[in-house]
Design a protein that fits this description.
The complex is a heterodimer.
Chain A: H1 27-32, E1 46-51, H2 61-75, E2 79-84, H3 87-99, H4 104-126, H5 136-149, E3 152-156, H6 178-189, E4 193-198, E5 203-204, E6 216-217, E7 219-221, H7 222-228, H8 239-242, E8 251-256, H9 263-267, E9 274-277
Parallel strand pairs in A: 1-2, 1-4, 2-3, 4-8, 7-9
Antiparallel strand pairs in A: 5-6, 8-9
Chain B: H1 12-19, H2 25-30, E1 42-47, H3 57-69, E2 75-80, H4 84-96, H5 100-122, H6 138-145, E3 147-151, H7 173-183, E4 188-193, E5 198-199, E6 211-212, E7 214-216, H8 217-223, H9 232-240, E8 246-251, H10 257-262, E9 269-272
Parallel strand pairs in B: 1-2, 1-4, 2-3, 4-8, 7-9
Antiparallel strand pairs in B: 5-6, 8-9
Helix pairs in contact in B: 4-5
Classes of the chains: A alpha/beta, B alpha/beta.
Chain lengths: 278, 274
């Protein structure tokens, strides 16, 4: 830094820096703002994995015990950051909140409690491995510390948007849910892989529950999903907006948690489900 | 055993959401409908960082006086911008290659400093500074004291999204303040800056810039301006807004403008979603 530049000649006090006296809204300035600089990876060895709420945790011991066992085994040699979904209880609180005419931001705030409950449920099962649910208030700032001190951490997958959630184009369901929050964690911390554990083999051409002719797609780009107009997505739709803006994590894999032997290969980046990339 | 919720305790909407896919357009359509105005009397006012607070007493004292004069008549939720120190922190962070989420944390600290300073200036009027965790007390403070101060950054911290290009956080204090006005169904969203409103170019740099008194978001996007007076994310969010479908930008360096804007007079630039 050189010396302060108190006047700048326009009545405003400036400090001498790259962005001094500039509008941060100017297109040219935005284009120059670090587009060509490599972004620091804070946790390059950690893997982020999101365990589905409705698809896995709500199914009880039948689905969750084998998933917890696979995660426990993975933790012996890997740093895991495990997000949880809110599942049926989030869907229920949305339905009541909507009926009471509450806005999107309030629904987003309410849903955090359900995912946090599920984080504590999974945290109880993984406690023997030294992995517990971390309160959202301290999770982000202390994450690098936690993953060094313990084999992994569990958090509610929600991003902390709360009443600052964005209203969606249609309806009032919060668009940034636990898949999106878990993804943004992986992207900001520059993690090795991002995996979604669900109860289907991956993305299908249409909903496999209602259409027996639905075909599994092994790998697909965001652009191709949009071009083909695939509507039934086993992940938060907003990921289609976030992935193309990725700097560090530009893909994720959906893996079937009902086939728990696939979980460790997926965490290690092997192609065992559907890979969606920017 | 599956622990889905039993059909007979669910409303129709509950059944649709618990069983259906949240990416299904038909399901999403079912979640549309009228939404409550939670704080319909409150005005959200964002005090610019670089444009107002960084000028020091010459700009800040008069606008604080004008806020105090309006306490009798209007409820005000006051958000603060970040400004010069955020630009400095961003430029260091860019040079170091730090992620956008970390830059979001740094910007939050600066807008918090600004909120604290304004808070101490207004403290003798009983006006509190509230952090996001204290927002449940906001309605009480509005009724009792008529105003509160918060930091304008949305509390996304590490979960700040990347911008389309570059690495500067796209959701900053204009956006955080706007989303407060939208979620609460506030009476108005007023941006207090150091220009009369929106111009066809940056009036600080282009003498031929023309003032725009009123414009829609679509018209503004069509003009594809090099520079705009509010964060572009606000314009995108306004299109999906359920409550707050207009924003106003005023020049806080001209005494009386805030009072006029609070009274609903046509001052500055009005940007509307429709």
């Amino acid at each position: 830094m050189s010396e302060d530049n108190p006047s700048g000649g326009d009545g405003r006090h400036h400090m001498d820096s790259l962005l001094m006296r500039e509008s941060l809204l100017d297109k040219d300035l935005v284009a120059q703002s670090g587009e060509n600089i490599d972004v620091v990876r804070m946790l390059p060895d950690a893997r982020v994995v999101k365990v589905g709420g409705r698809s896995i945790i709500d199914q009880g011991r039948k689905a969750l015990f084998p998933v917890a066992d696979a995660l426990g085994e993975a933790l012996a040699e890997r740093q895991l950051i495990i997000g949880t979904g809110g599942g049926a209880r989030s869907r229920h609180v949305f339905s009541i909140g909507l009926d009471l005419a509450l806005p999107t931001g309030v629904l987003a705030q309410l849903a955090i409690a359900d995912a946090l409950g599920n984080a504590h449920i999974l945290g109880t099962l993984l406690a023997p491995h030294g992995v517990v649910a971390i309160p959202p208030e301290i999770f982000g700032h202390l994450l690098p510390f936690f993953v060094r001190g313990a084999p992994g951490v569990i958090f509610n997958g929600d991003p902390p948007y709360q009443i600052w959630e964005h209203p969606p184009p249609v309806g009032r369901i919060p668009p940034h849910r636990t898949d999106a929050g878990s993804y943004l964690t992986a992207e900001c911390f520059g993690c090795k892989t991002f995996t979604l554990i669900k109860d289907v083999d991956g993305l299908y051409t249409s909903d496999p529950r209602t259409n027996s002719g639905a075909e599994l797609i092994k790998e697909i780009s965001v652009g191709e999903i949009q071009k083909r107009g695939i509507e039934s997505l086993p992940f938060d739709e907003v990921l289609l907006e976030l992935l193309p803006k990725a700097r560090l994590v530009d893909r994720f894999q959906i893996v079937n948690g009902l086939k728990p032997e696939l979980i460790i290969p997926a965490l290690d980046g092997e192609h065992v489900g559907t890979i969606v990339h920017a | 055993m599956s622990h889905s919720m039993n059909g007979d305790v669910l409303t129709d909407l509950g059944r649709i959401l618990v069983d259906g896919s949240l990416t299904d357009p038909n399901v999403k359509q079912q979640t549309a409908g009228p939404v409550a105005e939670i704080l319909p009397e409150a005005n959200v006012i964002k005090i610019g960082g670089q444009s107002m607070i960084d000028r020091g007493r010459s700009a800040v004292f008069p606008i604080m006086d004008e806020i105090v004069q309006n306490l009798e008549h209007h409820q005000m939720i006051l958000g603060t911008g970040a400004g010069t120190r955020a630009r400095h922190a961003y430029s260091v962070a860019l040079d170091l290659g730090l992620p956008t989420g970390v830059m979001g944390v740094l910007g939050t600290f600066v807008s918090m400093q600004n909120a604290r300073m304004l808070h101490y200036l207004l403290a003798k009027h009983g006006i509190p500074f509230i952090e996001p965790i204290q927002f449940p007390q906001l309605p009480l403070y509005l009724v009792e004291r008529k105003a509160v101060i918060f930091f304008g950054m949305p509390p996304y911290t590490f979960w700040q999204q990347n911008p389309d290009i570059g690495r500067i956080p796209p959701h900053r204090t204009d956006t955080g303040s706007y989303l407060v006005s939208e979620v609460f169904g506030a009476r108005s969203m007023i941006y207090v800056k150091d220009e009369d409103g929106l111009y066809t170019a940056d009036p600080k740099k282009d003498k031929n810039a023309k003032f725009i008194p009123k414009i829609t978001v679509d018209e503004l996007e069509e003009m594809d301006l090099q520079d705009v007076v509010v964060e572009r994310a606000v314009l995108r969010l306004m299109k999906n807004a359920q409550n707050r479908r207009s924003i106003r930008i005023i020049n806080g360096l001209k005494p009386g403008n805030l009072t006029r804007a609070l009274a609903g007079e046509d001052v500055g630039t009005l940007i509307t979603a429709d």
